[in-house]
Write the structure tokens for this entry.
Amino acid sequence: MPRQRKPIPGVDPKLLIKDAAKLLPEPSRRFFLRGAVSLGALAALSGCDIIDGDTSESTLRAISTFNDRVQAFLFNPNTLAPEYPESMITRPFPFNAYYSEDEAPDIDADKWELEIGGLVDNKKSWTLPELNKLPEVSQITRHVCVEGWSAIGSWQGVKLSDFLKMIGADTRAKYVWFQCAEGYSNTIDMPTALHPQTQLTLKFDHQTLPRAYGFPMKIRIPTKLGFKNPKYVTAMWVQNNDAGGYWENQGYNWFSGL
Amino acid sequence: MSVETTDHLPLAVEAPHGVIHPWWVRVTHWVNVLAMFMMIGSGWQIYDASPLFGFVFPREVALGGWLAGALLWHFAAMWLLVVNGAVYITLGILTGRFRRKLFPIHPGDVVRDLLAALRGSLSHEDLSAYNAVQKLLYVGIIFTGIVIVASGLSIWKPVQFQWLTSFFGDYNTARYVHFAAMTAIVTFLVVHVTLAVLVPKSLRAMIIGR
């Protein structure tokens, strides 16, 4: 079954909150069968059996993969996401996850390290003080959620493309994969990883990144939907295989570019 | 683009004598019906994930079951909608059909025909000629179709197509424009389908051409 959800280590499924409920599938029913009325009307019109679930799902996923390629083509590495004045920052900036704020990872900064792996020359792990010493970049950009809402935030941290070059990453590799403390994960394409606004984010609005927004580190990618901006990141791997991601594996479009 | 020189150009796409709707109008019409069902149904489900107003669409009329499913439908059906719409508009211009059938539209005729329609005294004898209200509505719905695609692209790609997004204001206002265009299309559909039922031969003409 392609749509089975993986359990999230350390998170009690019963505590998943209402925000997530909008996103979560009901495992008892396959998602494409729900629009029974519309689909029934469609079937009547077309006279063919388009309610065949497996065919619908595989066709829709094939088109989604085609849309990944279209989006990679549309992605211009030199096009910057619009930046906004400080006065337009959304306050308070929303917390958003498939768990409640209380359930968010509470990471001990002294014990935390960013693990580096894959096609990288220097695989040394990075502590928070080490990352904080690196040159800082800043952006005020719009976070766009796959649900449709958006919020403008201010993020500071290390330019990912500089960091990748510094650690000797093979930037001809196809993907960068991020693992997070709560079991969340994300794979992004290398062109997006090298985009000038893609950031290893250590601060929100010039303050240490709060727990709600991903302390100690999130990846800020203003050219992708919010769920492609992982929080509580613990490891980064440069690789040629697509390791998927938490939401992507459940049917959300992989590229999800803006 | 000049349509004068192409008025008599395409033999294959020009309707034979007595045909009200040439084959390409009928084909693109029914393909569009299919695209409309999928785009509107999945669009309602997507709306429900983050409603702009104080209501949601009932799950029974929404397509996709949950947000990810609806997004898969929406971004698959968009190709059908756009390719079909592009074929329709291109042929409508090249064959001169738009110019002949939809223009000119005189405000005075619109008022006259609207009043006649409200009195129930509008003639439907000759289906090959549109009254002024029909012309206005058909031009309006083609325009709305362009707006819903443009606002949709603005929401889908607010970085790559930021010039288009800023045409609608910003990302948020583009969402409202997209919703308003959907509302206009659904309102049109209600009127359009009601009238097709009231004048059944118009439905027949859209199926068999005459």
Summary: Chain B has a mean pLDDT of 91. Residues 126-210 of chain B form one domain. Residues 137 and 188 of chain B are 8 Å apart (CA to CA). The radius of gyration of chain B is 19 Å.
